[in-house]
Amino acid sequence: MELSIFITWCSPAGSTGQVADMIRKACEDLTVPVHTFDMGKDGSPDRFIENLTRAGDRALLFVGSPVYKDVAIPPVTGFLERLPDNSGAFAVPFVTWGQACSGVALWQLGRLLVAKGYRLAAGAKVLAVHSMMWQSDNPAGKGHPDRDTVDLMKKTVRDLIEAWRTSGLRELALEALDYQPEHLAREMKPKIDQPLMVMPRTVRTDLCTQCAICADACPVSAIVLNPFPEFLPHCFGCMSCVRECPENAIEPAVSLAQVETMIRQRVETIHETPGTRVFLP
Known about the structure:
The chain has nine helices and twelve strands. The protein is of the alpha/beta class.
């Protein structure tokens, strides 16, 4: 009975997509069938979900999200909530984080997968450049994901596939992904059930050329031009619009310099190590 790999992710700044690509390449090196779905670019997930459902317990599902304000982003959690039950299949959640804190996002994804009947085969948190520090010469997470991360992720995928083909996958307890110190976890977990706080932005109509680059960059199509950009309620604050605007016409309520200062303070306060870690049974 052949294993089929399914990889899905949302990656507004690109780091989670990098990790997904590492996983895909490792699978292809071992000639394992791979199905991919980029939530921000590939349109409807219906066909991906249909193939996943058809694979049943022959599926190994990888699901990736960046960490925003200690939790996974709504496109990813929403995708998992719409999955049909798949009792017996295995899954591997993975998150990317920008050195400030990886939060409880990995545990959150694992919990959603278990609720859908998946068994956890592994989990991973991967250090990456902080998505809000693209203008900095020395961003938090600079140089990551690095070559060691590539090697680690590829080895993890190879080991999982080899285990499937020989002795069988072992199940990782959900509690293994609940790795934050108790005082931090107690502060962070309530955020899972709260709306994600979105930083307000102002459109400078004197600078905006109505080029629609911001709308094209939005991973959830939450920007419409009317005639200038307007933000729809399902925007989750990834700031791709701010990052990609060629005219710097979209201004966040808090300056990027202030945001950078807050990020660096959190890096120093929490001081989470290691940056990248794979959780195995």
